[in-house]
Amino acid sequence: MTPKHFFLFALSSLGAVAVLAACGDDVSIPATDAGTDATTGDAASDAPKDSPSDAQGDGGADAADAADAAPTPHVSTVVSFNPATGQLPENVVIHKGVTYVSFAPSGQIVTVDNLGNVAPFATVPLAAPPGSNFLLGFDFDSSDNIFVAVAAVPSPTPNLAALAAAGVWRIPAGGTVDAGTATLIYTASGSSLKFANDVAIDPAGANIYITDSNDGAVYKAAISSVAGVINTPWIQDPLIAGDLGGDAGVTCTNRPGAGFPVGANDISIEGSVVYVSNTDKGSLVQIPINANGSAGAAANVFQDCQLKGFDGFDHNMTDSSWRAAVNSSNTINRVRVIGGTATVTTIASGHPPFDFPDSIIRVPDAAVFETFLVTNGAYFTPADAGQAPSLLKIVIQ
After folding, report:
1. Helix, strand or coil for residue 383?
2. CA-based nearest residue to 121, from 143, 95, 142, 141
3. pTM of the prediction?
4. Which residues, 6 or more positions from 50, have their beta carbon under 8 angstroms from its beta carbon?
5. Beta carbons of 396 and 374 less than 8 angstroms apart
6. Which domains does the chain have, with CATH numbers?
7. Cα(336)–Cα(327) distance, integer angstroms
8. Residue pLDDT, tens place only, 69-95
């Protein structure tokens, strides 16, 4: 298997997603249907039954609450993308009423309107040959600059150009299709940062937090840097480390086989708490930000091997529930945490409509029902087996 194909398989497990709870200025996107129906209310009929599990991963509840019955989802396709031109969507962000989607192999960010019209917005320079780097998570600051995580393909023989292009880039407000205007603010070359997967900016707009999936770490750095090198993680903890099967604590069988640990993945910040998904362990981890800016003790919000391959997430703070995209099982799940116990309910599943769902974000101010946008990365589905990179909309009734 070539390094590119190896990484594409790994990327199906990685897929960083910036849910952007840190972006308080994200407002709305039209909630009208676009595209074609992928499935309607019967999508959850084949879903697994509720799975109650201890929020810390070491026990389970006796029964799921009746309120956790699977809701009825309506799934529609906003737009389908062309994999032949590198349009494999990685991340979706709603910022100031506009929907942005990134294409991992091409380093492009596009806008998508509610009718499914796609327009180029920005480009990050990636190394040659194609497939040496991939654009993963991104976030906006309060001045509308975009901060983008770029990873280099893991390889026994490192591509120095790919390492030089990997790290965190800043794209000026308004975007640009000219990759030459993007600025590398932190480089993976010479850093201990190995696999920059996702980024989130703190509420003060001063620091950027970066997940390193390969090293089970989160880095914190000033967003004002240029070509900086970072060698000290903000936190490195077993709870956000990946698991190739030798972890004495949690080993999820039949985990996505990336060939290297895939731990810390998606990241968001709510007030003074950082949340990070762990792909290998099917867990969500919370890390307090201490008053002096240091990291507090990491703790599981929930852990369930049903969620192995867990990528993007969204938090409904009104009912202590989370939405979790699990790309290895083609499912969207609700995880409700009450009294230290988490109950997992699969609310939509199947291929189609899903093809490695990697990012999920709530549509603000949806009229009546919960509404989400989901990217289908389609990284490892052959073209003749229904490869379907796309942006979906899910309305949960």
Report:
1. helix
2. 95
3. 0.84
4. 64, 68, 69, 70, 343, 344, 345
5. no
6. 3-7+34-396 (2.120.10.30)
7. 20
8. 667 899 999 999 999 999 999 999 999
